[in-house]
TrEMBL record:
It comes from the Bacteria. Gene3D superfamilies: 3.90.1200.10. Residues 15-210 form the Aminoglycoside phosphotransferase domain. It comes from Pseudalkalibacillus berkeleyi. This is Phosphotransferase family protein.
Length: 262
């Protein structure tokens, strides 16, 4: 990384799962660097969804390095995810035609419930540890798929974990780490955020800040997607030989089974 910036810059890893992010500092100046970040980072920056993009450089080996303005801030805490500003920023993202057009231009196809279910079924043949326990949930996804098919597709972040929300010292909120973005039913993002972070008796008011009513259809779609996402988490950890984490999500899936859709 140093040869890109020139002499005098100090570069260190920024952490994260991919190991492709860095912090570069020259005196008091700091920038955030990432290798092969989301190809629509420029649009996210222009929309004010991520910190400002400063420049992009393509290396001889084909890698692309992006530099973003460094902001002093922190990750949102789990208890802060029920705030109105979170609902409003997610609403802005889901309503952005610029983001949607960009993802379509780079060839991203909508992620349908059928594609989600097919992927889980295929992975179930390789993940045998919880096969008997998970089968009833896969059957549920299959039997309710007609109720969740929709022609409403938006850009979804697909990992709205509180660790991906950055709030600055002057209270500006950003949603970062867009490597897994998809075109999908907005219920995919809403399910994870509401089920993980917002008490169900606050869903109605949270969604009013987001800009939609809490309908029976939305409840059904969110439940479908949180079940699917939880099964995916179980498989993900099983495939990486992480039994404790897989067991955590298996227990979570069992708790979901006890919930009643009103």
């Amino acid at each position: 990384m140093k040869h890109i910036l020139g002499s005098g810059w100090q570069v260190k890893p920024a952490g994260g799962a991919t190991g492709e992010a860095y912090i570069a500092q020259y005196g008091e100046e700091k920038i955030f660097l990432k290798r092969n970040s989301s190809p629509f980072l420029a649009v996210l920056s222009a929309e004010g969804i991520v910190p400002k993009l400063l420049w992009t450089k393509r290396l001889e080996n084909g890698d692309v390095i992006t530099a973003q303005h460094w902001l002093n801030g922190r990750e949102l805490k789990a208890a802060e995810m029920d705030q109105q500003i979170v609902a409003q920023l997610l609403s802005k993202i889901h309503r952005s035609q610029e983001l949607l057009s960009m993802l379509r231009r780079i060839g991203i196809q909508p992620l349908t419930p059928d594609a989600v279910l097919n992927e889980l079924v295929n992975r179930s043949f390789q993940n045998t540890k919880y096969q008997n326990e998970i089968k009833p949930y896969l059957d549920y996804l299959s039997s309710h798929i007609d109720a969740v098919r929709t022609d409403q597709f938006v850009v979804c972040h697909a990992d709205v974990n509180h660790n991906n929300w950055l709030i600055t010292e002057d209270q500006r909120l950003y949603l970062i780490d867009w490597d897994g973005a998809v075109i999908a039913d907005p219920a995919l993002d809403l399910a994870m955020l509401l089920y993980w972070y917002v008490p169900d008796d606050e869903w109605d008011s949270w969604l009013r800040s987001y800009g939609v009513p809490l309908t029976t259809s939305l409840k059904t779609r969110m439940y479908w997607y949180i079940v699917a996402q939880t099964i995916e988490s179980i498989y993900w950890h099983c495939e990486r030989n992480q039994p404790e984490q897989a067991n955590y999500w298996m227990n979570y899936l069992s708790q979901l089974n006890k919930q009643i859709l009103h």
